[in-house]
Design a protein that fits this description.
Elements lengths: L3 H16 L9 E6 L2 E4 L15 E4 L4 E3 L8 H10 L5 E5 L2 H6 L22 E2 L7 H10 L5 E4 L3 E6 L2 H24 L7 H14 L8
Parallel strand pairs: 6-7
Antiparallel strand pairs: 1-2, 1-5, 2-3, 3-4, 5-8, 7-8
Helix pairs in contact: 2-4
């Protein structure tokens, strides 16, 4: 079995994602790129039942090299993110409550808070397509251009990072910002940051190491 350590890290983050309410049941998926390979969670397996052997090993074309279980249905968009962004080393797809709600209400998450800066700016909503399809992968890739995060219409959210820790941090902050926006929108008309205000904050965050992993 190749890559035992990242396999265990994937399982640890799956359990954290479940415990933190970023997904439920067997929904969502996590992958890590190692060398010219991709490790990804299997389809339909409860997270507490995962073992290092159950994590699927694929090549960069999506062909399965190790593992007896079927890989996640979302292999196409994981692979597309890796092929498009050389710095991407981990992708986390969640089914969070507020992120999913936000994805039904807007085409792009407004600049309600500067904590969208680590994601690269206002997070766009990918057009709906059925899970597991190439159409969804293409929609995610288009909406994620220049970003490390995306909301999926009537579906969920996804973030990529240079490692699992960064990808998870981005998922966590994205859900928090979505929660702030949904609650504020329900209560009234939220004040938004101007483009200049947001860009100033983004420059400070990405240049100063304000967040772990925020400096490229």
């Amino acid at each position: 079995m190749q890559y035992p350590t990242p396999r265990r890290q994937i399982i640890d983050h799956c359990m954290k994602m479940l415990d933190d309410g970023l997904t439920l049941g067997t929904s969502g998926n996590i992958s890590v790129r190692v060398d010219d390979h991709v490790l990804i969670t299997p389809s339909g397996v409860p997270y507490p039942d995962l073992t290092p052997e159950s994590i699927c090993l694929l090549d960069m074309a999506g062909h399965q090299l190790e593992g007896d279980l079927k890989p996640s249905t979302e292999v196409p968009f994981h692979e597309l993110i890796y092929s498009r962004d050389p710095k991407a080393a981990a992708v986390i797809h969640t089914h969070p409550v507020y992120g999913t709600v936000a994805g039904t209400l807007c085409d792009s998450l407004p600049l309600i808070h500067y904590m969208l800066a680590p994601h690269g700016g206002s997070v766009r909503v990918a057009d709906y397509a059925r899970f597991g399809t190439q159409e969804l992968a293409d929609n995610v890739s288009a909406a994620m251009a220049g970003r490390k995060a995306v909301l999926l219409r009537n579906h969920g959210a996804a973030c990529w990072g240079k490692d699992l820790a960064e990808a998870y941090m981005l998922c966590d902050y994205l859900e928090w910002v979505c929660k702030v926006w949904v609650i504020a929108r329900t209560a009234g008309t939220p004040a938004l940051l101007t483009t200049d205000q947001f860009e100033e904050a983004m420059t400070e965050i990405t240049g100063s190491g304000y967040l772990p992993g925020s400096r490229d």
